[in-house]
Amino acid sequence: MYIDWSNIETVLLDMDGTLLDLHFDSHFWLDHLPQVYAQKHQLSDEEVQQIMMPLFENHAGTLNWYCVEFWSDALGLDIMQHKQEVSHKIGYRPAAQGFLQRCREQVDDLRLITNAHREVLNLKIEHTKLDQYFDQMVCSHELGAPKEQLEFWSSLHSMQGFDPDSTLFIDDSETVLDAAHAFGIGHIFSIAEPDSQRERAQASKFPMLTSFTSAQEAPLKQR
Is the pLDDT of residue 69 over 60? Predict the structure, then answer.
């Protein structure tokens, strides 16, 4: 799957599941945090699931879902402290750094746009030095809406304009990609394997990048 660099002026990239292995986040929310909660309250795994799953379902796709303070208050746990405990699992997806360098060479407007809370972004920068590649790093909390909502895209455009037709956006979330498509982003790709340890839950209606290596091999534009 090739990227047509000749028609791209702006690149917008997701972080978790796109540039970074989603395994850290999956492990934290599905394994580590439930164990911490169970130990604190002396509950069984089943009892913890009965408490957590409704919360997850009710807040999915909202800013609360990505908010460190919300989950700390809702669960009575220091979310950032417990993220630090498994932060050794934070890492790039294969060939992501090479792809970032290719983006850096091809466009003058390269932005990270993430639903991650700024504290979580800072933790991941600490482990990956991800910030070295980007002109701008935007957290959805600071725009008042998650990427799943058109309000995010309007606010992003108002903050610093870009031409949607000549913009490349890559993300592993289908609902986020749907919102980007509705806004008019011209070049949209999904990720075939966002989590190195789990199979992707569903296929995407958008072209799926199986590897950043093939994206790096795409024909370059003349600059």
Answer: yes
